[in-house]
Amino acid sequence: MAYTVPKLKDFSPAALDKAAERLLAALKKESADIKTESDWKLFRDRWMARKNGVLTLVNDFWLKVTPKENKREIGQRVNQIKQQVVQTVDRTLSRIQSAASASRLATESIDITLPGNRRPLGAEHPVIKTMNEIVSVFRNLGYSLEEGPIIETDYYNFEALNFPPNHPARDTQDTLFVANQESKPLRDRLLLRTHTSPVQIRTMEKIKPPLRIVIPGKVHRNDPPDASHSPMFHQIEGLAVDTNITLGDLKGTLDHAMKALFGSSVKTSFRPSFFPFTEPSAEMLISCFICGGSGKRGSEPCRSCKQTGWIEILGCGMVDPNVFEFVKDNGYDPRKVSGFAFGMGADRIAILKYGVDDIQLFFQGDVRFLEQFG
Ligand SMILES: [Zn+2]
After folding, report:
1. Segment 152-161 mean pLDDT
2. Distance in Å, CA 293 to ligand 1 centroid
3. What CA–CA distance (Å, rounded) separates 151 from 153?
4. Which of 16, 55, 120, 204 is the most exposed place for a label (fewest CB within 10 A)?
5. What separation in Å is there between the alpha carbon of 89 and the centre of ligand 1?
6. What pLDDT was estimated at residue 297?
7. Cα(first)–Cα(last) distance of the chain, in Å?
8. Three-state DSSP class for residue 315
9. Distance between Cα 65 and ligand 1 center (Å)
């Protein structure tokens, strides 16, 4: 039976005590039965609603009808009852809320003996990895790292590197030019840099000699993609400028670098070549690190060196004095300083190192291929 508020007839303290006792016992019992928040709302309203709530009825049936001489005493008791009701209603809510969160915690609890969710680990891209290795070889020799913009002007990409105006590299056959540049003077026209060499000029404009820098970066050529060509690829080049740099320094430095990269048994060889920005210029070859220079792998011909025992690995040369003329104002007087430069294709070296047979694999983003290099 739900508790109902009796109409009080006896206003003695003893009678009130009894009535209060019954009321509080009912309150306690009802509170104990509350399990959910919606139960609690009904409970709260039953006891505290302004209209027909138990407290309102207590006020109407007990206090209002009390004779004057008992009013003070009864008033105090009714206030106590109110406080207890309010307190009990509040505590009931706290109790069911903490019970709910405890049961939520119990269902959400973590079994620390279960294996975790494994996040797939990325691997360093083989080309980036190769570039980092080459850069670190030169950093160990005291070279500092420089970078520059991929969208360049004709001036930095060609003119200041001693490319004559009609050099075939300036032709759209080889170079990707930015569209709608015709209204600008030739030297200001934008293009995608075809080599990392513009950074040589940019750095010499910025830093006075002596200078030793290594420059990794992305370059573009107008080459249709195939197994050994990509319109985007990576170069690393280096530049050393000082007062007395000779071809012997060039050979010694690169010989050391190749041994550091490919193993101490690797031999180097130089063959004359031509680049507009170096004079003299050379191609450097290294003995094939796949077949040890024999041209054969067992009884099979070595594909890496096409059976020659040698692999062309980079271009190099002594900086052409004409190049220094462009940065003469920053201390690069060609009568006082000399230097060497070299450049290599990072993708090609990665292909050789990892035995990959198609440069396109590097740029297709296929995780099954890339994760082999982790
Ligand atoms: Zn070989």
Report:
1. 95
2. 6
3. 7
4. 120
5. 88
6. 87
7. 75
8. strand
9. 114
